[in-house]
Design goal:
The complex is a heterodimer of chains A (557) and B (346). Chain A is mostly helical and 557 residues long. In chain B, a hairpin with a 2-residue loop joins strand 1 and strand 2. The two termini of chain B are 27 Å apart. Helix content of chain B is 39%, strand content 17%. The longest helix of chain B has 34 residues. The chains are: A mainly alpha (557), B alpha+beta (346).
Chain lengths: 557, 346
């Protein structure tokens, strides 16, 4: 990979030794290389967390299954959730932001390249610490003791009395350390967006991808803070004899819940806003129209950023808050649906009257729109508190948030992979395999997550390692498991396509999609420091202006 | 459950899948099905009503938006006749933006008012004088039920009376936890409420008809969260009165099983379990004074048969791996004696 993504000019023409290449990658401060490191690191953990998901699904295929022990099952769902959120989705999204934001705003790098490298390596260390717990969770006396407290580690289950050994300690420190990395990257994106835009690109002309990652970064600064505070308090409880969450000594279990979810819910939007960013770039290009309602899209994103800070306790409708608090969090949760709905309408408005090209990135974008619509609506159903008293903590919720994260975010990430792959590598992927991947994944996804709503309605709680053969449960769970394996097969196809196209793909050229933002004006992959001369822009679509001098955007904005 | 029955229910389930999704309520099942759309108590029934409304509203939104999406995909696809020309470049429209902002706002106002009304109706319902009080204490991984006014302590199988709408006798549950967080969920009787240490939560049920209602712990509480099952027996008033007076008796003292009683009283059993009239007064494990009045063992993990009871005492991990009851390593003779003793505790 290094020879093609050459960010550092070397005077000699001979291919460098592999140790040199490795050294270059490990010590790099180049935003494009760090972006690719983030993405590869996320894909590596995607495989781990995917295997954990499949173990969960095999265990739940039948009632009274003994494929794994309850102890192992509990570790699997804890590690699956923690890994997917913190070490798959976040790194991949940060990777794309790192790679794309400077290119799209006409900058030569991020504002703080060394902080950028530091942030990546902190995140990487966090993931390694988490997985080291498989070996060291019991203090090296017995292996196989990864965290088993669930990805929220509700107090007091995470306290020393209920979670002896060090596995929860590894979980805590892994999140703490990767949280520092996230904050570093967020500061970097904010500084880059505010200070590094090329001449002519005032905020109202900035590509939506940069805008949305800017908003996301602001949310990271606010949301990671309470998580960090809570993890520090938990460490004090576990290792220094504190009692913040130690209910046996008067601590509060609900305090932990509030701390965790005031991070946890904004986190959902921290993950989904970059997905929105991909959609806002990809849908216009393949509809051959500019984004519909650019200022409204920016406003709606900022609106989501603010409202999503006030919805956290909708994860806690069953913990016995009074009726006023429950009502408050119901209305805020419903309200966040309004700006989110506006975004969906604007993407539809972008497609409306366009000439839609069904290339692989667009297929995944349409999948995103359809599934994210359903995910939002099942979210509205659960914002109705009494309904949530039934659905909360059941498989309905599991289906709902996988609809958001897989059906929404992951589909958007796949779209982004196919859309920017030619820019990252200089090669086209196989369109045929891309379509196979899409259709196979759509089938697997709907088999798994449509069906998964029903066991929840039929009373099946989440996080149970086995179940009684109640009416319907077994058949439904079997279908869900089959769907999971179809998704896994589709992902293998995706990885195969990425790897093989890297060597066998056709040359992409600068601008294979006839797109309009600045990253497509430079070679693929972009040269070191991106722009030989800093571009000057006059509209939101500088390349449109260049291609249509008779009818430039700058005339209308 | 025999195979035929299982297949039937599988087919039924597959067929009712779409119906459930767009939500025609499933018909009330004759046996406990843990289906949230088969309510048998006011809170559950009220929630079903609200669910229908919310699902109907969201289904309409889905139908409208999904149709627009499908229409644009079909109608505005690129065609060979386009000859590479770009479509009209439209940048936005303030009127349209305003419309699709205001309409959702109106929808959520309606949804919120409907929701707030039901929150209040369920959560702030007054407690009638005839209500039964039960204290539910969650333990890793079983349920303790205490009836403070009746002097009864039992485990895992909750008995409550049918509530006649003319003279309601609802049951008010006070929810506590001895260790980690748990959640009480019997879908046909009501939504779930968590049991949290250092905190008192409340919920109420007023079952409409007698029967056995199943549920289980819904908040992840540790290794055996999966087998922390719940059985609620809703009894006719006369049956409930009979059950109460039976539970209020002291434990049976049968001279034929003195050997077993001796083994019980001289091993660590008594540190965790209670049996009235003996030295055993522990509170970590279930009260055993009327063990044989319960139909299951280990919080529903096994049927309460002599063979299962013996296996459970011999090696709890065989039934519920990771349960907190230790194996006492009793000899075969002692095991038989203890089992025989416990079987007399009617």
């Amino acid at each position: 990979m290094s020879t093609n993504v050459s960010a550092i000019e070397t005077p000699q023409s001979a291919a460098p030794a592999w140790t040199e290449t490795l050294h270059e990658w490990v010590t790099t401060v180049d935003h494009k290389r760090l972006g690719i490191l983030y993405i590869l690191y996320g894909l590596g953990f995607l495989v781990m967390a995917g295997i954990e998901a499949l173990i969960i699904r095999i265990q739940l295929m039948h009632a009274h299954s003994s494929f794994v022990s309850p102890q192992v099952f509990n570790r699997m769902f804890t590690m699956h959730g923690t890994t997917m959120i913190f070490f798959v989705v976040m790194p991949i999204l940060f990777g794309f932001a790192n790679y794309l934001v400077p290119l799209m705003i006409g900058a030569r790098d991020m504002a703080f390249p060394r902080l950028n490298a530091f942030s990546f390596w902190l995140t990487a260390l966090g993931g390694l610490l988490l997985y080291f717990s498989f070996l060291g969770g019991n203090g090296l006396y017995g292996a196989g003791n990864a965290p088993d407290v669930g990805w929220w580690a509700y107090a007091p289950l995470g306290a020393k009395a209920f979670s002896p050994g060090h596995s929860t300690g590894y979980w805590t420190i892994a999140l703490l350390v990767s949280g520092f990395g996230s904050v570093g990257t967020a500061i970097n994106i904010i500084a880059t967006v505010l200070c590094m835009r090329c001449p002519g690109m005032h905020l109202g002309r900035m590509p939506l991808l940069a805008w949305l990652n800017f908003v996301m970064s602001g949310m990271v600064l606010i949301a990671i803070t309470p998580l960090t505070a809570a993890q520090m308090m938990l460490l004090v409880d576990r290792y220094l004899g504190g009692h913040f969450f130690d209910t046996q000594a008067g601590g509060s279990a609900t305090l932990w819940m509030h701390f965790f979810w005031i991070f946890g819910h904004p986190e959902v939007y921290i993950l989904v806003i970059p997905a929105f960013a991909f959609m806002s770039e990809i849908i216009p290009v393949f509809s051959r129209k500019p984004i519909f309602g650019y200022p409204v899209m920016v406003g709606a994103t900022v609106g989501i950023g603010f409202i999503s800070m006030s919805v956290w306790a909708h994860h806690m409708f069953t913990v016995g808050m009074n009726s006023y608090a429950n009502s408050f969090f119901a209305i805020t949760t419903m309200a966040v649906g309004v700006p989110t709905g506006i975004k969906i309408f604007n993407w539809l408005g972008t497609m409306w009257g366009g000439r839609i090209q069904f290339k692989t990135p667009m297929l995944f974008s349409i999948g995103f729109l359809f599934q994210f619509l359903i995910a939002g609506l099942t979210g509205i159903i659960q914002s109705s508190v009494p309904v949530d008293w039934q659905l909360s903590l059941s498989y309905f919720v599991v289906a709902h948030f996988h609809y958001v994260i897989v059906g929404g975010i992951l589909f958007a990430v796949f779209a982004a992979f196919y859309y920017w792959y030619p820019k990252f590598t200089g090669r086209m992927f196989s369109e045929r395999l891309g379509k196979w991947h899409f259709w196979l994944f759509v089938i697997g996804f709907h088999m798994t997550f449509d069906v998964m709503h029903v066991p929840g309605i039929l009373g099946m709680p989440r996080r149970i390692y086995t179940y009684e053969p109640r009416p319907g449960w077994e058949t439904l769970n079997l279908i869900v498991t089959i769907g999971a394996f179809i998704q896994a097969a589709a992902i293998l196809l995706f990885v195969y396509n990425l790897v093989v196209s890297y060597w066998k793909g056709a040359k992409a050229g600068n601008d294979p999609w006839d797109a309009w933002t600045l990253e497509w004006s430079v070679s693929s992959p972009p040269p070191a420091y991106n722009f030989a001369t800093i571009p000057v822009v006059a509209s939101r679509r500088p390349l449109w202006d260049q291609k249509h001098p008779e009818d430039p955007d700058s005339r209308y904005e | 459950m025999n195979m035929r029955h299982r297949h039937n229910s599988a087919i039924r389930c597959a067929l009712s899948f779409l119906a459930l999704f767009f939500c025609a309520a499933a018909a009330a099942a004759p046996v406990s099905s843990t289906n949230i759309f088969a309510p048998a108590s006011t809170p559950a029934r009220t929630i079903v009503g609200l669910s229908h409304f919310v699902i109907a509203v969201t289904a309409v939104i889905f139908a409208v938006v999904a149709s627009l999406l499908v229409y644009s995909v079909v109608k505005f696809r690129a065609r060979a006749t386009d000859a590479g020309r770009e479509p009209a470049q439209v940048y936005g429209s303030t009127q349209i933006e305003l419309a699709w902002t205001v309409i959702p706002v109106l929808i959520i106002i309606v949804l919120f008012l409907a929701t707030a009304r039901i929150i209040h109706a369920i959560q702030d319902a007054p407690k009638p004088a005839a209500a039964l009080d039960v204290t539910v204490i969650g333990h890793q991984f079983w349920w303790e039920f205490r009836y403070p006014k009746l002097g009864i302590v039992t485990a895992n199988e909750l008995h409550i009376p049918v509530s006649d709408p003319a003279h309601p006798t609802p049951t008010f549950l006070k929810l506590l936890s001895a260790d980690t967080d748990h959640s009480f969920w019997v879908p046909e009787l009501g939504g779930k409420t968590d049991l949290i240490p250092n905190r008192v939560n409340e919920m109420w049920l007023d079952p409409e008809r007698p029967g056995i209602y199943l549920g289980q712990c819904a908040q992840y509480c540790g290794t055996q969260h999966g087998k922390m099952l719940l059985r609620v027996s809703v009894d006719r008033p006369a049956d409930f009165a009979a059950w109460v007076s039976a539970q209020q008796q002291a434990a049976v003292q049968d001279p034929k099983v003195l050997a077993g009683k001796h083994v019980f009283e001289t091993t660590s059993c008594i540190n965790c379990h209670s049996i009235s009239g003996t030295a055993a007064n522990g509170r970590f494990g279930p009260d055993l004074a009327h063990l044989m009045s319960r139909s299951t063992l280990a919080s529903g993990a096994a049927e309460n048969t002599p063979a299962n009871l013996r296996l459970w005492i011999q090696n709890p991990d065989a039934i519920k791996p990771g349960s907190l009851m230790p194996a006492m390593k009793l000899s075969d003779g002692d095991l038989d004696a203890v089992t025989a003793y416990l079987e007399t505790l009617r």
